[in-house]
Design brief:
The chain is α+β, with helices and mostly antiparallel strands and 141 residues long. 16% of the residues lie in helices and 15% in strands. It contains three helices and four strands; from the N terminus they run αββαβαβ. A two-stranded antiparallel ribbon has the order 1-2. It has a two-stranded parallel ribbon with strand order 3-4. α3 links the parallel β3 and β4.
């Protein structure tokens, strides 16, 4: 949809109305965890898993290149309405165990990068191939 704005229905029944749109007007919607945001540079990092299943995200990621445009929208935890998502809220003491498969890797990496300096525990991410291992650096505030 290069050069056009994404238009989504609004209101409490927006999803039902979005599903009712004709295929050519119903943009694919997927929910992802943001790994990093650099507002000054207008950059957002989102890790994608290439499933090879031909889904909208895999198709886009396989052919995406520098300068390609996408639409990113949605409220975050600062939005005072119901945003439909949950923010990770670690316990204030005790060890953490965070585990998941490759589809959870982006969320786990985002969580690890935001943990407080005194957090401790283990993170385990199962990936099918060593080439799928992501670099993780904790932001020790």
């Amino acid at each position: 949809m290069t050069g056009t704005k994404v238009r989504l229905p609004t209101g409490p029944d927006w999803y039902r109305r979005w599903r009712a749109l004709p295929d050519e007007r119903r943009n694919p919607i997927r929910t992802y965890t943001v790994r990093a945001v650099r507002p000054v540079l207008s950059e957002v990092d989102v890790d994608l898993v290439l499933h090879g299943d031909g889904g909208p995200a895999s198709r886009w990621a396989e052919r995406a290149g520098p300068g390609d445009r996408i639409a990113i929208l949605g409220p975050d935890a600062g939005y005072d309405g119901d945003h439909g998502g949950l923010e990770f809220d670690p316990p204030h003491s005790g060890p953490l165990l965070i585990a998941g498969d490759e589809t959870a890797a982006p969320a786990i990496c985002a969580i690890l990068s935001r943990l407080p300096a005194d957090a401790h525990g283990h993170a385990v991410v199962e990936v099918p191939d060593p080439a799928d291992v992501l670099s993780v650096a904790a932001d020790r505030r």
